[in-house]
Design goal:
globular; alpha/beta; 5-stranded mixed sheet; 21% strand
Length: 131
């Protein structure tokens, strides 16, 4: 498998699923209350990195892209990392490149990402939620 760098889409905020039908939901930009603080996508693990972390090859092959979730580990800072995790590879492993719903791109310090993921239902919710 080629070890391409990957970008994960914020599945909670931008896609989501209907809990009763499991149907994929897609939100409009106008539905976001604070687009400048809602993460759209970020660096995620490569295929080889995900396999090394224990993700099945078939799981990677069946998904054209990885998703990011607010409740998964930040690799390689926190372990174990999942295929849906964030991946630190910028500024000496100090930040993760993220884009936001309003179009701006920012390098977010690892500690901030970890705070967001640890508080995904509290103070970090705005960074992931569509509404």
């Amino acid at each position: 498998m080629t070890n391409y760098k990957t970008i994960g889409v914020n599945a909670w905020g931008f896609l989501g699923r209907n809990t009763s039908t499991n149907a994929l939901l897609i939100y409009r930009l106008s539905e976001f209350s604070n687009p400048s603080m809602t993460m759209h996508c970020a660096d995620t693990r490569t295929g080889n990195e995900a396999i090394a972390a224990g993700v099945a090859l078939s799981s990677i092959q069946n998904n054209a892209h990885n998703y990011i979730f607010p409740n998964v580990d930040v690799a390689p800072i926190s372990t174990p990392a999942s295929a849906q995790g964030f991946f630190v590879r910028h500024r000496d492993a100090a930040s993760i490149n993220c884009s936001f719903a309003d179009g701006h791109v920012q390098s977010i310090p690892v500690n901030s990402i970890m705070d967001w993921t640890n508080n995904c239902f509290g103070s970090g919710k705005i960074h992931f939620s569509a509404k």
